[in-house]
Automatic annotation (TrEMBL):
Protein name: WD repeat-containing protein 27
Membrane in keyword set: yes
Keyword vocabulary terms for this entry: Membrane, Transmembrane, Transmembrane helix
Matches recorded under SUPFAM superfamilies: WD40 repeat-like (SSF50978)
């Protein structure tokens, strides 16, 4: 365990590795936290009970005008700065972690809050055109699946 429950004001709803396992993303309320990760794998029998691995908060990002993040998507398989979040306000927000800010908001993407976002991560079994990595899908209860393009936000 790296972080105690006192670090988070609400329960953590979602966690994933990010940026080729260099970071961790955690959703907590209307914000997500970017944590740096440094795992110490050295073996020292004399100090084996001392925790030497470190997980530190890098930055917090808040979704605009929402109570809670209902879904988050970020690619870990290759270097991507894009993080997508859906909130209880039924909006989708695009964050550029390279710039450290929100870059776009799409209001009312579904009649209900989206419960899943899936970005195109590619496949080891086939090649794709570079533009295909700009595609993502969202889904909400009772509304099916919608396919989106980051370039047009439609």
């Amino acid at each position: 365990s790296f972080q105690g429950k006192e670090m988070f004001p609400k329960s953590v709803r979602f966690a994933q590795f990010y940026f080729m396992d260099a970071f961790i993303l955690l959703c907590c309320g209307a914000e997500f936290h970017l944590l740096s990760l440094n795992l110490d794998t050295t073996k020292d029998e004399l100090k084996r009970y001392k925790q030497r691995s470190v997980c530190k908060l890098v930055q917090k990002f808040s979704m605009a005008s929402t109570v809670e993040i209902t879904s988050l998507s970020a690619v870990n398989d290759f270097y991507s700065y894009v993080v997508l979040t859906a909130g209880s306000n039924r909006a989708l927000e695009v964050f550029d972690l390279n710039a450290g800010c929100s870059t776009a908001v799409i209001p009312e993407i579904h009649p209900k809050s989206a419960h899943q976002i899936c970005q195109n991560k590619g496949s080891a079994f086939s090649s794709q055109q570079p533009g295909a990595y700009n595609l993502f899908m969202t889904t909400a209860a009772g509304d099916g699946i919608k396919l989106w393009d980051l370039r047009t936000l439609r």
